[in-house]
């Protein structure tokens, strides 16, 4: 394993499990100091301490708590070079059944909390004057929609739009902002409703003939934050095994 992030300070939201945990582990393996934010206190603190990092328990749906926890994480690290906003929720609900409460919950976690953590990280990066990399985790749903995931897709389209606005506003400070748009990544998310037949069908939609892994996403996140990603900003990068090509 290369050590491209020796001395780097990385904050990962939703880092207690799944894609976020894998990304936190990848940065730590490459030398970074990592802080993890999540509402899963036990899994999160185990994950962070296994990486020699810090853990901050927080419900990111609360914007004040989200801001304070992100500020505490950055203060604990003595600054921030990379933010990865991975925390998110997924619900399968037909469009006709989406209530105002369900909409608000989805947007609070998947979009507003992303904005709050981006704002806190960017303020710190701009003040420090050394640039930085912000990586948001959107979804292929932002680009192609999805039946029974209308509010999820809308929240992820919002993440892509926020990512592009931030890239435009913060580029002059050397802050690069990019979104990852994963396809089917087999984590706990959606596991309750996922069948073996689903996995076979999803695999057949990829020219590579398989679903994705958290490691597939973590490798792209590490590339984006590394010097090899230096001329990338405002991008929404598909990690779908070729299922989405636009
Ligand atoms: P997981 O459910 O495995 O992990 C998400 C983590 O975020 C969980 O620990 C979860 O805790 C936490 N989280 C959720 N809501 C909050 C909150 N309000 N405050 C603090 N922490 C919270 O999901 P994945 O790792 O699969 O997904 C990571 C990101 O990738 C998400 O944004 C997701 O939308 C996106 N994505 C995932 C895909 C996939 O196929 N897996 C495909 C495309 C995008 P809790 O369990 O308590 O909710």
TrEMBL record:
GO terms for molecular function: oxidoreductase activity. Gene3D superfamilies: NAD(P)-binding Rossmann-like Domain. The keyword Oxidoreductase applies. Signal peptide: none annotated. Keywords: Oxidoreductase. SUPFAM superfamilies: NAD(P)-binding Rossmann-fold domains. Its EC number is 1.1.1.-. Pfam families: adh_short_C2. Belongs to the short-chain dehydrogenases/reductases (SDR) family. This is SDR family NAD(P)-dependent oxidoreductase. The lineage of its organism: Bacteria, Bacillati, Actinomycetota, Actinomycetes, Kineosporiales.
